[in-house]
Amino acid sequence: MTAPRGGAPRRTGGPRDRAGTATAGRGVPAARVLWGLALALVLAWSVGPAAWQALTALKPDAQITHVPTVYLPHPVTWKHVETLWSRKPFGTYLANSAWVATWATLLCVSFAALAAAGLARMPGRGREPLLLGLLFLSLFPPILLLFPLYEGVRWLGWINHPLALILPYAALNLPLAVWVLESAFRQLPLELDEAARLDGLSALARIRRIHLPLAMPAVATAAILVFIFCWNEFMLALTFMTTDARKTVTAGIASVSGASLYEIPWGQLSAAIVLATLPLVLLVLVFERRIVSGLTRGAIKG
Amino acid sequence: MRAVRAGVWTRERALLLLPAALLLAVVVVVPVLRVLMLSVNRVELEDGFRLHLAGIEPYLRLWLDGRWWTALRNTAVFTVSSVALEMTLGVAFALVLHRAFRGRGLARALVMLPWALPTAVMALAWAWIFNDSFGVANDLLRRLGLLPHPIAWLGQPVTAMLAMVVADVWKTTPFVALIALAGLQAIPEQVLEAARLDGLSAWQRFRRVTLPLLRPALLVAVAFRAVQAYGAFDLVYVMTGGGPGGSTETVSLYAFQNYFRYLDFGYGSAVATTGVLIVTALVLALVRLARPRAEAA
What CATH topology corresponds to A88-301? Predict the structure, then answer.
């Protein structure tokens, strides 16, 4: 729906452009200045807290604990980042997060693709209740599942085993992935699927050769969202991963703070926060469109 | 060809759904049933996690447990204030972003950023911002002349809750803004043009045209956000640990403490279960509230 608008010349001249905003109707220059101010505030608020960590990470210790606050680091120091990197566990945390999130995403999207392909060809009376059921399951807060999962993980001897996180992460994100994929698969022409079936392709082969390639944007969307949620998960990681060698980055960093907020070397901690969030910052900057489409589709439909 | 696919279930469809169904059964359905069962039992570490039926006793204990009531109240205060602020700010953000300008994609990506960053990690960042001696919050507010002297934000009940709400609003406003933005883009231009020709001011157009048309999308966002805020754990655990003096402890955190600090697994399950019952009631009430208005709009 934005297409014509986005394609219009960049200069936002006529009042038509501001039809939806509350600033329209005033004198044009004043409205534009106000709007520019509002945009600057919105961006500062959104980026500020993360940017502040980056600034802290680059300051020499004396400036971090200086009163009144020193805003810009001078000179910039990479000492905190280097110390953090040379200390063993942090790289391990990052690697663990990447490993767990990647496998969970693969598993989740594969299972979701199968289920979505099955659902997409179902008549509505069968499909709708199942989709609503999925939505319902996704609303349970994780604390409800935590202890029974802990019992299960202990029983299997999976404390400190990556599978203890991979399986729950894949399951907890299934509803979202199925919702995104199902609505994309349903828009594929039925005839393609039929033709492939008459050519003797199995259900799995059809999903691999038809559904996945044609709905690639939706697959990417689902994968990115699931990956972000897995990377960010904290409660299960905190409970199931007890040794430094196995901790993911969220659990690893947060347990540093557990010691005492006052003895923390804030420079290093800030560096840790920046490094843990950097992959996500890149994901958002690169895949902004995909993320937006995935989130709004899920929510508007619900 | 169609005749083959007329039924709901074919063997092929059942097989396609099977892996997902199994995974969800093991990770979600069975644990939910298990926690319900645990919640009416006493479970002790000493005799190896054996269950002793306790009936409704754990729930009676909840009723008499002042700490549970406090946690419930904290959760309610946190949920209501966060969600109210997020909705307001989210709509405002969407209005700002809803126009064509150079670099709109980048602006939208930057606004999205808080949503994508890990809560547990950013909770530390917020603890640093609200640090009593070196925090930038104190410094900024004093420079603006809004604070006469620095505050120990996380050291006092009211300001600690406030700091937590601020951090949560920061994190979740982007989600609301996205939903509202999608809603804004679905409003036909002609409707607003007609309102303009009728002589409605910008504010009147917003109140009487834009907002009612956004309502269905916003109610969905409220329902999602309320459920999530109600289950808040990461932020509280890392930022305040429930303190000072339990003044920011949420139901989720209290359940967690019962499990892994007091090793009272049955009672922890009862705490977690009541939390969910309340969320369910909340969602049902919201849906009921939303339906007639959504249809009217």
Answer: MetI-like fold (1.10.3720)
Contact list, A151 vs chain B (CB under 8 Å): 34, 49
pLDDT value at residue A292: 84
d(CA B154, CA B127): 8
Vertex A47 angle, CA A40 and B225, to 5° = 100
Closest CA to B268 of B90, B106, B43: B43
d(CA A175, CA B214): 25
Residues of B in contact with A299 (CB under 8 A): 175, 178-179, 217, 220-221, 224
The predicted pLDDT at position A88 comes to 62
Asked if B113's CB is within 8 angstroms of A47's CB, the reply is yes
In this prediction, the answer to ipTM > 0.90 reads: no
A63 vs B211: CA distance, rounded Å: 47
Is B178 within 8 Å of A288 when comparing Cβ atoms?
no
Domains and CATH numbers, chain B: 85-248+286-296 (1.10.3720.10)
In which residue are the tokens 């110390």 written?
Answer: A83
Residues forming CATH 1.10.3720.10 domain(s) in chain A: 88-301
Distance CA B75, CA B275 (A): 10
pLDDT in the model for residue B297: 36
Q: Which residues contact residue B215 at a Cβ distance below 8 angstroms, ignoring those fewer than 6 apart? A: B293, B294, B297
Please report the pLDDT score of residue A76 as a whole number: 79
Cβ B283 vs Cβ B223: under 8 Å: yes
